[in-house]
Amino acid sequence: MSEQTSDVDALQQRLDRVREEVGKRIIGQREVLERLLVCILADGNALLESNPGLGKTTMVRTVADVTDLDFSRVQNTPDLMPSDITGTEIIRESEGNREFVFEKGPIFANVVLADEINRATPKTQAALLEAMQEKQVTAAGETYDLPRPFFVLATQNPIDQEGTYPLPEAQTDRFLLKLVLDYPAYEEERDIVTLYTGGETAQEVEKVLTRAELTEIQSLVREMPIADDVRDRAIRLVRATREAETVEFGASPRASMGLVLTAKARAFLHGRNHVSWEDVESMAPPVLRHRILLDFRAEREGVTTDDVIADLLTEI
What we know:
This protein has about 325 residues and is α/β, with parallel strands linked by helices. The protein has 13 helices and eleven strands. It has helices at about 5-20, 30-40, 55-65, 80-85, 120-135, 170, 185-195, 210-225, 230-240, 255-270, 275-290, 295-300, 305-315, and strands at about 45-50, 70-75, 85-95, 95-105, 110-115, 135-140, 140-145, 150-155, 175-180, 245-250, 295. A five-stranded parallel β-sheet has the order 2-5-8-1-9. β3 (about 85-95) and β4 form a beta hairpin. α8 crosses α10. The longest helix has 20 residues, at about 5-20. The protein is globular, with a radius of gyration of 21 Å.
């Protein structure tokens, strides 16, 4: 076994440890956790949707703790200004001298949790998404690089939409994945109640992956081999969304790139050295569900984007 192969095996084992450590605080939600890790390994951003109280914040914070990443949280409200996120210049006085100093905002962290992004105004949403896309912030003519690695994980609730500003389709397309958290099973909810209502405080977790190792994994993910037929089939799946009868607007080539890249990341996470069609099938819903706009007939009949994706998977 070559030294490089040995290093890859060691990194894949570290990722198994990451899931074990996060599991100390998060009961269940294994599929969501896996896809969240896939998003991070693919150097992407994720949109998390669920009803309140299902552990979105705890999951994201724990992943940051285990991977030794700086964590920051932004609670979006209608009165939040773009400078509240990116930062602003302030006057600092020292020994009788005054000077303008840039005070960095919460966007300057490795993992930024943007809670209830649909409650922020479009102007603030645009500032956040611009920083997410460019990996930098410009203020008063100066450009400041954001720390690397850098991830934005935004949450939104599907209920209580009065007074909110839903993200336009063109902006949701900037998120690599859209993850949906569902309610836990009875046994899982019982374990959650037992864990968090007992005498002990929150479980301590270990840092098992460094920033340098995470960056190395991101490079290895892009080098993961994928067979031509698997890649071409993934592209045909994305193209099929543009021709489906129930779809008004299908997914763009950005979805094709995201589907192949996340399939590579999932294969790496599972300890394999190649991409299988199973990886593509698993990642198709979170990659495509927010990039497909259904027509009025589908909405009237209660058809969801996940239903359309499932049908297309059986046809491709």
